[in-house]
């Protein structure tokens, strides 16, 4: 503590920031660590584990063009592509001038709750109108232009005059989504599947250690970058390098470098916003998304009354207190095991300048409810019940906005649930990767409807013939 205060005073006097994060020398490239220069002088550390079955075809990897189209040069990858189940994604999103948001689901709708991913199936095509303007009270089928019911006149009373006609409100914005999406099971033996893990503020790729080891052993290709200023990536001494847009472009470059045909994005906390950005930018390449304690579908805006707005030297003096606060709020328990996990995961080990710039740069006005409602990719929401950073109702709000969303709550977990409960999280993620919608129920219901219609037509024909005979 005394050392931290001394270094903070020297930082204030000299005007220099201590504890800079610099790239490490990778003496063992076999461990899967690579350094990628996304921009001149901007280098990110990436852990890239390629299964042995794919190591022989490094010269025929999948590439993504600038326009986002998929270019596959591997013949074996074409042959291993899965058919999957075709789902009709159709919804109408209407925003009114008073801020009211109305979403109509007109296509296939997945069940809202799913405990075992293999049991998920599709409901018949239906129209569901959900009003999302009120946060707490959610009527099932609200009318954007309600009309009071007429009151029947009693005997002897004069009929009341009709109420004046209300002028129909014009929507401020209307978005219509109408597309087909193929959802398939993603196995570790499929060479066209890649998993991307994105950490949040103060973390590093090391927080995904259990997940990277688990899924790489199952044969999945895994990619996990360190954000700028985190882990072993370079730490530019300019605040503009840590805005949402700057970091999003870094991850776009990483995604375009390693993307396969079917990519699954796994984000934690602030990393969820970057996964949402990539899923929106590349809907044909992002196959599934996992959001771990990511919060609600609201536009990002930095808080002006936050402790992270203090000068970097002051934050450096407070770093021991901040680390303890993070341990207390990020983990359900604060024992020796949790402290060791925090140290091994290299979490909350960034310079005060980077921490301040990251918190101040969280400005993303486009990422509002409409932006999230436009996503058609299946999404698994994982929430730690003891999380003190992200309330439960925010993830519930996210599940209500998204088209295909499954919410899973882990009671013994907190904000760092993937480190606290690695076995539970790994099993849940693996089930979601293997999940595929069951279209048999939809096809059987359609067949029964066709049979009923055919029988009705036959009966109508028989009655017509009898009447003609008479």
UniProtKB/TrEMBL annotation:
Chain ranges of the AB hydrolase-1 domain: 194-310
Polar residues compositional bias, start-end: 458-470
UniProt cross-references to Gene3D superfamilies, sorted A to Z: alpha/beta hydrolase
Gene Ontology cellular component terms for the protein in this record: mitochondrion
Pfam family membership, one: Abhydrolase_1
Compositionally biased region (Pro residues): 141-153
Gene Ontology terms: biological process: lipid homeostasis; negative regulation of NLRP3 inflammasome complex assembly; phosphatidic acid biosynthetic process
Region (Disordered), start-end ranges: 136-173, 441-470
Chain intervals with Basic and acidic residues compositional bias: 441-451
Keywords: Hydrolase
Biased composition (Basic residues): 164-173
Protein name: Protein ABHD8
Lineage: Eukaryota, Metazoa, Chordata, Craniata, Vertebrata
């Amino acid at each position: 503590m005394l050392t931290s205060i001394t270094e903070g005073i020297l930082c204030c006097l000299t005007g220099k920031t201590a504890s800079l994060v610099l790239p490490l020398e990778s003496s063992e490239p076999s461990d899967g660590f690579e350094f990628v220069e996304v921009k001149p002088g901007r280098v990110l550390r990436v852990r890239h584990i390629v299964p042995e079955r794919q190591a022989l075809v490094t010269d025929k990897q999948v590439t993504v063009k600038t326009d986002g189209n998929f270019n596959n040069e591997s013949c074996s990858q074409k042959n291993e592509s899965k058919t999957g189940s075709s789902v009709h994604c159709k919804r109408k999103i209407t925003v009114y001038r008073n801020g009211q948001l109305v979403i109509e689901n007109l296509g296939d709708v997945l069940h809202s709750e799913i405990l075992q991913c293999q049991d998920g199936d599709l409901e018949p095509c239906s129209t569901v109108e959900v009003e999302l303007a009120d946060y707490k009270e959610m009527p099932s089928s609200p009318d954007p232009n309600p009309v009071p019911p007429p009151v029947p006149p009693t005997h002897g009373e004069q009929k009341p005059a009709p109420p004046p006609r209300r002028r129909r409100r014009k929507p401020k914005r209307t978005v219509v989504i109408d597309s087909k999406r193929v959802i398939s099971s993603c196995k570790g033996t499929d060479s066209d599947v890649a998993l991307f893990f994105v950490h949040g503020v103060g973390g590093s790729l090391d927080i995904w250690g259990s997940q990277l080891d688990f899924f790489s052993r199952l044969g999945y290709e895994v990619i996990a970058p360190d954000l700028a200023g985190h882990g072993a990536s370079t730490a530019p001494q300019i605040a503009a390098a840590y805005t949402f847009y700057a970091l999003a472009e870094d991850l776009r470059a990483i995604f375009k470098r390693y993307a396969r045909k079917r990519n699954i994005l796994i984000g934690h906390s602030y990393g969820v916003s970057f996964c949402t950005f990539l899923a929106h930018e590349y809907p044909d390449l992002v196959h599934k998304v996992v959001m771990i304690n990511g919060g609600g579908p609201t536009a990002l805006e930095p808080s002006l009354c936050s402790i992270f707005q203090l000068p970097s030297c002051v934050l450096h003096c407070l770093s021991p207190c901040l680390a303890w606060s993070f341990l207390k709020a990020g983990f359900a328990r604060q024992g020796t095991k949790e402290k060791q996990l925090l140290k091994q995961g290299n979490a909350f080990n960034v310079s005060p300048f980077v921490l301040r710039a990251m918190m101040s740069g969280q400005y993303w006005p486009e990422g509002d409810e409409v932006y999230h409602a436009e996503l058609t990719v299946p999404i698994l929401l994982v929430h730690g019940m003891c999380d003190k950073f992200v309330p439960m109702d925010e993830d519930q709000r996210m599940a209500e906005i998204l088209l295909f969303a499954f919410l899973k709550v882990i009671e013994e977990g907190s904000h760092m649930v993937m480190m606290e409960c690695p076995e539970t999280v790994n099993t849940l993620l693996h089930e979601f990767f293997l999940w595929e919608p069951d279209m048999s129920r939809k096809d059987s219901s359609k067949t029964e409807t066709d049979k009923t219609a055919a029988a009705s037509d036959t009966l109508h024909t028989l009655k017509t013939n009898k009447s003609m005979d008479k």
